[in-house]
Amino acid sequence: MVLSELLKTIQPIQIIGSTETEITGVNIDSRLVQAGHLFMAMRGTQTDGHAYIAVAIEKGAVAVLCEDVPEERKEGITYIQVKDSEDAVGKVATTFYDDPTSKIELVGVTGTNGKTTIATLLYDTFRYFGYKVGLISTVCNYIDDKAVPTEHTTPDPITLNQLLGQMADSGCKYVFMEVSSHSIAQKRISGLRFAGGIFTNLTRDHLDYHKTVENYLKAKKKFFDDMPKNAFSLTNLDDKNGLVMTQNTRSKVYTYSLRSLCDFKGKILESHFEGMLLDFNNHELAVRFIGRFNASNLLAVFGAAVLLGKKEEDVLVALSTLHPVAGRFDAVRSPKGYTAIVDYAHTPDALINVLNAIHGVLEGKGKVITVVGAGGNRDKGKRPIMAKEAAKASDRVIITSDNPRFEEPQDIINDMLAGLDKDDMQKTISIADRREAIKTACMLAQPGDVILVAGKGHENYQETKGVKHHFDDKEELNRVFNG
């Protein structure tokens, strides 16, 4: 593509050099640059792409997009100066990959909890209807039935547009995508056209990056502020921030709720460990999911599918066939008569939701044993809160390691224990080795009890000192059961 064509959606401050150069690729990582590429220098949280301009040119870049033009410029290279390279990168990538979101219906899901479940269940629902569908999520990306491994919840703009381009070329009609607060703040979704957006909820998370809950809220809200006029925004009325999210959007706003009058109204009629009987807009349906939070997630899926043109009755039939997402309230039955549940809950609110769901089914007829930790090098403020919530809603608590990353496991455990009072400590033990913690929980459990292993869900590794070691909570439970 000719450089002038590539720059049509941005307003550069200045261009030094020719815009008639042929561009064969676009990159933000200098290590991936090849001959004929445009290198785009971004200021990241770890490194500044401006420091790698010379390296990119050496590797064959013929043009450079940047905020600060280098003092020493190389002859024959075109320099494009922009005010905001984060914003420009997404728009340029969209143009280079032939504006993939103009050919597909892209729906984004944002919020603290429920993003993976809602995006994945929408993907499953529309595949049930016979469409080719794309999925961009924390667990895995899919181009219809082909899995594409993922590193981040929302990839960088180049990877994202490349992936969306492949989805469009493969004939995908719909794409469902988790939209993280990081990706909104870092403008990774700049240039994409959304057919709709879904807001789940907002609770404390990622404050290591956003610093305050208000900044975190603003990042999520910006997604809806930027939503086009012909799109829909579906928001959760049961969250106090539900209407805050959509107050400045140009899109058409719809609401869902398990408590209030709204466009998509739900109610739990019955609940047990095999699933729930629900009422959605005066239609009954049985599902294989458990817990109020899952009823809310399914309601969002129901609403979004209807807003994308499907009949309510057809969507209900599809929902009744769905299975829970890997690592989300994943129940395993022990031969000794107790139940173990693996869940990704890694925020105080998610932990409360899962424990409430367990109590909703148990109705006081068994004890709850919770195994929980917190990730290293992440928001430290949530550690004592998570321990407190676990203690509040459990009969026994085992504080253990999650992904320690570059912190000492015992330091993280101590941060969690600091949230507990004397009574909480009576029912709490700490075991740094997660395998031993799970084994101990199983030894403590009696028939009719429930063990919750929280925090890692679908993850099949434990990250320590920069190395990912294989570790899977569900595998560990099955090892104990079969031992």
Quick rundown:
Belongs to the MurCDEF family. MurE subfamily. The chain is of the alpha/beta class and 483 residues long.
Tell me about this structure.
- With 483 residues, the chain is of the alpha/beta class.
- 33% of the residues lie in helices and 22% in strands.
- The strands form 4 sheets. It has an 11-stranded mixed beta sheet with strand order 9-8-7-10-6-11-12-13-14-15-16, with helices on both faces. Strands 17-18-22-19-20-21 form a 6-stranded mixed beta sheet, sandwiched between helices. A 5-stranded mixed beta sheet has the order 1-5-4-3-2.
- Strand 15 and strand 16 form a beta hairpin.
- Helix 13 (382-392) packs across helix 14.
- The longest helix has 16 residues, at 292-307.
- The chain starts with a helix and ends with a helix.
- Residues 205-210 have low confidence and may be disordered.
